[in-house]
TrEMBL record:
An example molecular function term from Gene Ontology annotations: DNA binding
InterPro entries: Bact_HTH_transcr_reg, Chorismate_lyase_/UTRA_dom_sf, Tscrpt_reg_HTH_GntR, UTRA, WH-like_DNA-bd_sf, WH_DNA-bd_sf
One biological process term in Gene Ontology: negative regulation of DNA-templated transcription
Listed name of the protein: GntR family transcriptional regulator
Amino acid sequence: MDTSLPLPKYHQIYLVLREQLQEGRFDRDGVPGEHVLADQFSVARITIRKAMEMLVADGLVVRRPGLGTWPLHAGQRTGGKTPGISREKAHLTGLLENIVNMGLRTSVSVLESSVVGASDAVADALALELGAPVYKSVRVRSTQAGPLSYITTHVPQGITEINREELERKPLLMLLEEAGVELGGATQTISARLADAVVARHLDIAVGSALLAVTRLVRDVSERPVQLLQGLYRPDRYQYQLQLSRVGNIDAKVWVSEELSAQFH
């Protein structure tokens, strides 16, 4: 864990596990046992136990004696809230330009390319039935300075066929366009996350390090969701720039944003 963060270790672990639960990481096999998590985070089991107690109190998991710890999905919870995907619009033209620019100036390593059943969170975002087949890809992009981002994407299987060789050559949005998908708009949320053991290893950082988290839902011209992207970026190598302008009359001026660029180094 990152000992420089002003949070107790158990709280850092709680935040990491909460993020993984929201991504559907433990839907199939349940949350790993205390001894496994203790080894993963290099802490004592009592620290893991405190983090698990926080997850139980939030209504995110249920602990079943003899059966392990399992996620509680939105329909099962009596407490706690799962944040939905923000509805703040992003300009898709600028988004595509940034993605193409990034693709030309970075190298990519495809860690996973497979068909999986949609988790609760993925199915909700893509307007699919739980367990519906989706193409899942996990990629790490790097610059000359080293790894930049850890990106997980899900695309409904009925949209187009996606394979590893194509992902190694082109950005996914370009592949969707080449398959005849008419991209219409995107909704994007930017927040902060903490790196778990897997992400930390691929981005060459310490477990618990702060990351810039981007969740992007892309739709076609008929408003059908066609891609869910969840990206984790090293803040020392990636910047997201917006330009703000004031609009409206003198009594009700508001700030509106125009996406300028996603800068990396």
